[in-house]
Amino acid sequence: MNLNFGAIAPSIPYIIQGILVTLLFVLISAVLGFIWGTVLSLFKISKFKPLRWFAEGYTSIFRGIPLLVTLSLIYFATPQVTGYDITALQAGVITFTLNSAAYISETIRGGILAVDRGQAEAATSLGVPYRPMMMDVILPQAFKSILPAMVNESIALLKDSSLVSVIGVTDILRRAQIVAAEKFVYFEPLLFAALIYYVMVTGLTIASRGLERRMRISD
After folding, report:
1. Confidence at 144, pLDDT banded by 50, 70, 90
2. Is residue 26 assigned to a domain?
């Protein structure tokens, strides 16, 4: 094997700078996806049927369409349909927010349904309105039980974020591809990009385990 990691050494800082782009994209998408996913989960347990139908249909659509197809539709079709020249980063954030919300909503819904019904009944008997009951009683307990699943979703989001390189976002993978094209070597820069993703995912996993231990101690 003719490997030459020295050839990409001057370009390593350039690839590493892509971490900031990736983290910014993942953080925004994760926060917005969590908020929208929480709203969708409340729609799914609502007694108002149109809200349930909307949330279930939404989840069905985004779980049934490949993520790359959704990303391509939003990035390439938005200028044609709306006339707005959407940026690659905006298209990526919108796509991953909408997509992750569909999966998060199912996770949160399951967590809410796993909470003992006696909690809601007790709050209702005390005259606690629905919204404060959900925010202060049900959701905090549900989030404790769904933390491992939420971490898995965050890891999936981090890894899937590499897809935005397809539409030109200069994330870790895109920068590695640029270096590969300039240096006429592919294994070395792509392997270095893979190592960066692995370290980031491992760090997220370790942090989540620490959070889980703290939550168990606080119970």
Report:
1. confident
2. yes
Amino acid found at 118: G
Q: What would the two tokens of residue 183 be?
A: 């240096």
Alpha-carbon distances of 93 from 32, 34, 52, 118, rounded to whole Å? 9, 13, 25, 39
CATH of the domain at 96: 1.10.3720.10
Tell me: pLDDT of 1 over 70: no
In this structure, what are the phi and psi dihedrals at residue 87, rounded to the nearest 5 degrees? -80, 160
The answer for residues whose C-beta is within 8 angstroms of residue 94's C-beta and 6 or more apart is 74
* Cβ atoms within 10 Å, residue 135: 10
> From CA 91, how far away is CA 67, in angstroms rounded?
12
- Asked if residue 2 is part of any domain, the answer here is no
**Cβ–Cβ under 8 Å, residues 36 and 128:** no
Structural domain boundaries, residue 144: 9-218
In a domain, 4, yes or no: no
Please state, as a whole number, how many other Cβ atoms lie within 10 Å of the Cβ of residue 11.
19
Question: Is 146 inside any structural domain?
Answer: yes
Please indicate, yes or no, whether the overall pTM of this predicted structure exceeds 0.90: no
Q: What is the b/e burial string over 156-186, where b = at least 16 CB atoms within 10 angstroms of the residue's CB?
A: ebbebbbbbbebebbbbbbbbbbbbeeeebe
